[in-house]
Amino acid sequence: MPELPEVETVRRGLAPVMEGARIVSLEQRRPNLRFPFPDRFSERLQGQRIEVLSRRAKYLLADIRSGDILVMHLGMSGSFRILEECDGKIAGDFYYARNKDTHHDHVFFHLETAGGALAQVIYNDPRRFGFMTLIERAGLSDHPFFARLGLEPLGNELDGAWLAHAFAGRKTPLKAALLDQKLIAGLGNIYVCEALWRAKLSPLRLAGTLVTKAGRPTAAAGRLTEAIREVLAQAVEAGGSTLRDYMKTDGTLGYFQHSFIAYDREGEPCRHPDCNGTIERITQSGRSTFYCRSCQR
Fold it and tell me: Is 175 a catalytic residue?
């Protein structure tokens, strides 16, 4: 499943075309994806203008002038691509060849961009685990998708003090606490493994050990929050990571996976210069965890 950097990469790819655009029409090729589309989905969006395209955790949010929010989730294999037309001819920086599996093209946004050009944004999803829905802007924060989401890890609020408050008294493994979306929204398995390696913290360590008896953050808590922000920022800059079906909006693959230091490196030497250990793979809550037991304590 695409993680936060992948979704942020997609948002940045779509924003130049979708923000400020008017939805001339919306074409659905099927009645449902993971869930059924809302009633009158195409009709409610036709003629509306997209004010802002944002992200919350792993959700894409298109703020529609009508007062609705178009919520989009990529699921396991969802991707977008963009075609821009000018005088009936395909042109511009956003033209990319269609994927071979075009029978998995399920939703077509026919747009008039802020600059007056005509464009198509096409949603493709072979496994159909993604979804789209409409939520009233006033009720977004209370909606079940969003009501219990935690802190955004790319913001400035994530620091040692915040982590100490969130982890105080917790006896769950550190990795499980980091994956708890009610605490930190959008963190996934890959980047948690990478951040824990950078911070030299064991995924098996109890989350509460990052807090002193007085409730203050330990030095490890500071290292961890810095590592989280660092690895996410680098992944976004690199265009996300390519696992299975994930693609950027332009049809190319992300490449941060070439920089993975712990994830999927089972049996390889640990790359910390002061460590002679080896990256191991264990299973936690049904997910693979990659770490070095020699230096991650």
Answer: no
